[in-house]
Automatic annotation (TrEMBL):
This is DNA repair protein RadA. The lineage of its organism: Bacteria, Bacillati, Actinomycetota, Actinomycetes, Kineosporiales. It comes from Kineococcus xinjiangensis. One of its GO terms (cellular component) is cytosol. DNA-dependent ATPase involved in processing of recombination intermediates, plays a role in repairing DNA breaks. Stimulates the branch migration of RecA-mediated strand transfer reactions, allowing the 3' invading strand to extend heteroduplex DNA faster. Binds ssDNA in the presence of ADP but not other nucleotides, has ATPase activity that is stimulated by ssDNA and various branched DNA structures, but inhibited by SSB. Does not have RecA's homology-searching function. Plays a role in repairing double-strand DNA breaks, probably involving stabilizing or processing branched DNA or blocked replication forks. The middle region has homology to RecA with ATPase motifs including the RadA KNRFG motif, while the C-terminus is homologous to Lon protease. The gene is radA.
Amino acid sequence: MAAPTVPPVPAKTTARSARPGYRCGECGWVTAKWVGRCGECQAWGTVEEVGTAVVRTTAAATVREPARPIADVDVEAARAQPTGVDEFDRVLGGGLVPGAVVLLAGEPGVGKSTLLLDAASRAAATGRTVLYVTAEESAAQVRLRAERIGALRPRLLLTSETDLATVLGHIEHSSPDLLVVDSVQTVASGSVEGTAGGVTQVREVAAALIGAAKRRHMATLLVGHVTKDGSIAGPRVLEHLVDVVCQFEGERHSRLRLLRAVKNRYGPTDEVGCFDLTEDGIEGLADPSGLFVSQRSEAVPGTCITVTLEGRRPLLAELQALVAASGGGGSPRRVTSGLEGSRVAMLLAVLQRRLGVPLADRDTYVATVGGVKLTEPSVDLAAALAVASAAADQPLPSRLVAFGEVGLAGEVRPVTGAPRRLSEAARLGFTTAIVPVGSLGTGKDGAGKAPAGLVVHEVATLADAVRHARLVERPSARGGR
């Protein structure tokens, strides 16, 4: 009888089976299994499968140029070159560094294209070759804008392209010193899947443009879109790849535009550039305080000037308040414009509870001049004095400024940058300042002294501030006149 046939035993697999990997489309975080929420940036629904997770190694390559002592490295290649737009250069840290990639983000219609077209024109006027790639508008539309703002230059080259390969071809052909791409979300590559603006496309386009900028030492300006919540659209890795990230902000109904650096490898991130957007173009504002202060010949109850800090720059702003008799039949109205409503409601409660200002049955309106938004706690004291002035129907002393944070106990707390605020107020001709205790500081070399021509009253409580402001409620003010 034949022996039964035994099936062969399969050989033991020594290599571990490859498993699929997953990556977050926002920040690039990698995990071995799918999760609904990214473990790095906490974004929902951004983790996608990227294929098989295979460990790869790279062999050592031949060194073309040996490493040099750090003292022998030429620093001239990293010197910033001014763009010609002073406020733009202030935010960038002196200008554009060759090979640097700057991402400028902002809401539609805020003036991003106008700012970059003006910067490109000024750079071309200095003899540099500038390539302006418009992927959202036609070349004729950009030409009309350039003619309107006076940005026609022989060395400013313009092309309308949405294909990445064609854009790279233009770069090879013209060899520009400065590249402007408007915008990075509308350029697509045919070598990867997905539509323009998608995570994969934006990552591929940005990587290709950044690689070209680094190889050619070509400064690059990229325009980026923003989402409804104000964050930069596209993958979060885009912000990590570029060297500088700037936010261009401004209200649609206001001429003022603010440029802030969110990330800057070559300079500070606490500088702010101010611009005035008009029909004839965009202009830098070295002293924008006049936009936020009313020009009147006589004092009016309910107004107070404060000094706020935008980055390291002190700016004067005017707060206005109106207190009127309520129509009855419910709670009085509390309306704010340019200020946080919850913060103003707290100040009204402090005024009523700590100082006895009658506001429970009176409508109160508090607003800023010029459409500026003030979120700094230092504006608390000025807002409280403006409301107290309106309730008493008495104007504050002329040429007076006030700043300081107000607490629930009625105390006035110190704020940062007090010497700079006081110096700016003195420079603009103000004669009296009501500030928190300790704002003048102590020390040597003039510290602890008020600027020339400025009388400074340091106060510890809101009651002290009202007393220095000489506010006494008139009997007729209770009726809302």
